[in-house]
């Protein structure tokens, strides 16, 4: 299984020189099986960059198939949806899968995003591709071509987001983003179970550890929380993810250095760029 | 009066190496009179950095801010929840917008902070918000700035603004299609639709109204999202080319045009080419043509 981060930034897309190495796009992660099957997680602005590559291949001809999992529907995780060009080509088959937000069904939530005052698309029905909106209850396992995905609800401030344990080609990637535990030192057992023996744990690291105290309750983790999950779960590698919009490349480097010095688990910061083998 | 560009991009923010010089954030311009009266035009993602600057200047004190919106498509409102002065208690924020495809402006703006989209609802934000519906042709005053909304041609409607102050004037004309091939109404367009005579008359009236409002304006900031070959493919998207903007500005006798609302696909290298091409095209017809980049400040009026 290969993985590519197309967007690693939380909350807000950041352009400019200070954000070039890790990238300023909001969250989007692509997984590709050895057989070439794709799975996309989240539709932040990073998805618009992936869209260009997809359109140069089968999606430009209306022959693309893509399942998309949403962790939740906060804007930084869906803001690329109206600009994800494979939606505009007839013949593409795209499944959007997520849990229903507590306050509104998923389909109505996405319809609201495309409401006529906000978007000239004026509704999902105007997307030319075949688009289905499918919901699941966190806790269930989803079987997709090439991927087996376990899901769990985790707390994110006043809402719940979905964490994923994705199995493919004998490897495991666990995505735990937009999550805040009661304490970073006491991650929820569900989170640890989801990351058990994972080859790669991608974890919310919105806050540098020293910034966390003043931002407790905002729904995000300090870098240290990912370390605790990785160690208790026996994960083989930890990727810090969902970087703060205020975190420049140099600041992220410093967080990685301090975090790596605190654990025997290999640590790196997720950055936009190339495909790598899990 | 001077204007500063905080976001110059259309559609969605584009981080990365290709947009470092012109900038990747979406629509947001700050206008300031010599006396310090401030108007913010559009609240795209550029608003976040502007808000951080204004909050630093305010040093924790509540302020009063005025935000004119051309319309409420995402790229023009997405910065609002990240406008840091809104989190200072006592701050007052007045939002002015055309009512398009919705009944209540506060619900449209409040809708972007629904629980599905954002952690904190508008009602819980410490700042007080006031909502004002604008209408083309109905003037309003913000401090020493006289504001005139102008009808534009964009899906579900948009307005431009002429702003007079300190003895000069500038105008913000974004987003708009040209006024010939398509009349944008309140429905989705998958391509061009035939124009009736009523449609043609409406387009002519919008075109003539825009020209009348732009007479005597020093600097016009104009939606030039597309290059001509791109426009030819997407004439129904509601955006113009620099050639369309030059034609309007020359007809209205404007001194200076600023190209704005750049397509997210245009790299810095392409923007350099566009800037050079249209600087020359403008010069040939007596129009100064600038190309907006993030951080650019332009003084309005000719220094005496």
Give a verbal description of the structure:
The complex is a heterodimer of chains A (278) and B (304). Chain A is of the alpha/beta class and 278 residues long. Chain A has one domain: Ribonuclease Z/Hydroxyacylglutathione hydrolase-like (Metallo-beta-lactamase, Chain A, 4-Layer Sandwich), CATH 3.60.15.10. Chain A is built from five helices and 14 strands. In chain A, the strands form two sheets. In chain A, strands 6-5-4-3-2-1-14 form a seven-stranded mixed β-sheet. Chain A has a seven-stranded mixed β-sheet with strand order 7-8-9-10-11-12-13. In chain A, helix 1 links the parallel strand 3 and strand 4. The longest helix of chain A has 13 residues. Chain A is globular. The N and C termini of chain A lie close together (6 Å). Chain B is an alpha/beta fold and 304 residues long. Chain B has a single domain, classed as Ribonuclease Z/Hydroxyacylglutathione hydrolase-like (Metallo-beta-lactamase, Chain A, 4-Layer Sandwich), CATH 3.60.15. Chain B is 23% helix and 24% strand. In chain B, strand 10, helix 3 and strand 11 form a beta-alpha-beta unit. In chain B, helix 3 crosses helix 5. The two termini of chain B are 13 Å apart. At the A-B interface, helix 2 of A face loops of B.
Helix and strand arrangement:
The complex is a heterodimer of chains A (278) and B (304).
Chain A: E1 2-7, E2 28-32, E3 38-41, H1 46-55, E4 65-69, E5 93-98, H2 106-113, E6 130-135, E7 141-144, E8 147-156, E9 159-168, E10 171-176, H3 189-194, E11 200-204, H4 223-233, E12 238-241, H5 249-261, E13 267-269, E14 276-277
Parallel strand pairs in A: 3-4, 4-5, 5-6, 10-11, 11-12, 12-13
Antiparallel strand pairs in A: 1-2, 1-14, 2-3, 7-8, 8-9, 9-10
Chain B: E1 2-7, E2 28-32, E3 38-41, H1 47-58, E4 64-68, E5 92-97, H2 105-111, E6 128-133, E7 140-142, E8 145-152, E9 158-165, E10 168-173, H3 197-214, E11 219-223, H4 228-233, H5 242-252, E12 256-260, H6 268-284, E13 288-291, E14 297-299
Parallel strand pairs in B: 3-4, 4-5, 5-6, 10-11, 11-12, 12-13
Antiparallel strand pairs in B: 1-2, 1-14, 2-3, 7-8, 8-9, 9-10
């Amino acid at each position: 299984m290969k993985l590519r981060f197309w967007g690693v930034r939380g909350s807000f897309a950041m352009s400019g020189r200070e954000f070039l190495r890790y990238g300023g796009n909001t969250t989007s992660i692509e997984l590709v099986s050895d057989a070439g099957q794709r799975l996309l997680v989240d539709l932040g602005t990073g998805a618009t960059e992936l869209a260009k590559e997809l359109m140069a291949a089968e999606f430009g001809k209306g022959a693309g198939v893509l399942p998309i999992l949403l962790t939740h529907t906060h804007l930084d995780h869906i803001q690329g949806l109206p600009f994800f060009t494979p939606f505009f080509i007839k013949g593409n088959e795209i499944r959007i899968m997520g849990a229903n937000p507590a306050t509104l069904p998923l389909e109505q939530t996405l319809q609201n995003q495309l409401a006529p005052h906000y978007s000239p698309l004026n509704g999902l029905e105007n997307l030319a591709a075949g688009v289905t909106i499918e919901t699941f209850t966190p806790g269930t396992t989803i079987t997709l071509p090439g991927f087996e995905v376990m899901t769990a609800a985790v707390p994110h401030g006043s809402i719940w987001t979905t964490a994923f344990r994705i199995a493919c080609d004998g490897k495991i990637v666990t995505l735990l983003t937009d999550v805040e535990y009661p304490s970073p030192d006491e991650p929820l057992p569900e989170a640890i179970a989801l990351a058990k023996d994972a080859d790669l744990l991608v974890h919310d690291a919105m806050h540098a550890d020293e910034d966390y105290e003043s931002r407790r309750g905002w729904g995000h983790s300090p870098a240290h929380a990912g370390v605790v999950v990785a160690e208790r779960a026996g994960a083989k590698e930890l990727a810090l993810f969902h970087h703060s919009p205020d975190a420049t490349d140099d600041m992220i480097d410093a967080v990685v250095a301090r975090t790596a010095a605190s654990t025997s688990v290999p640590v790196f910061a997720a950055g936009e760029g190339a495909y790598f083998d899990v | 009066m001077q204007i500063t560009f905080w976001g110059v991009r259309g559609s969605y923010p584009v981080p990365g190496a290709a947009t470092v010089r012109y900038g990747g954030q979406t629509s947001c311009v700050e206008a300031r009179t010599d006396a310090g009266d401030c108007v913010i035009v559009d609240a795209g993602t550029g608003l976040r950095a502007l808000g951080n600057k204004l909050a630093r200047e305010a040093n924790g004190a509540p302020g009063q801010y005025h935000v004119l919106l051309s319309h409420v498509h995402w790229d023009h409102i997405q910065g609002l929840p990240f406008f840091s002065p809104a989190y200072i208690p006592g701050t007052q924020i007045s939002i002015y917008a055309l009512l398009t495809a919705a009944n209540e402006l506060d619900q449209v703006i409040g809708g972007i902070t629904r629980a599905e989209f954002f952690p904190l609802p508008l009602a819980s934000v410490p700042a007080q918000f006031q909502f004002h519906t604008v209408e083309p042709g109905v003037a309003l005053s913000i401090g020493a700035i006289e504001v005139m909304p102008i009808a534009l041609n964009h899906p579900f409607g948009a307005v431009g603004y002429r702003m007079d102050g300190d003895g000069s004037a500038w105008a913000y004309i974004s987003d708009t299609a040209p006024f010939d091939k398509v009349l944008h109404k309140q429905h989705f367009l998958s391509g061009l639709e035939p124009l009736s005579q009523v449609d043609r008359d409406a387009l002519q009236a919008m075109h003539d109204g825009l020209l009348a409002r732009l007479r005597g304006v020093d600097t016009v900031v104009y939606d030039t999202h597309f290059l001509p070959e791109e426009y030819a493919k997407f004439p129904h998207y509601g955006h113009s080319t620099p050639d369309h903007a030059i034609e309007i500005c020359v007809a209205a006798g404007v001194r200076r045009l600023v190209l704005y609302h750049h397509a997210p696909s245009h790299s810095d290298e392409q923007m350099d080419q566009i800037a050079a091409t249209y600087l020359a095209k403008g010069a040939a017809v007596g129009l100064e043509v600038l190309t907006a980049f993030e951080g650019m400040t332009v003084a309005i009026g000719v220094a005496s």
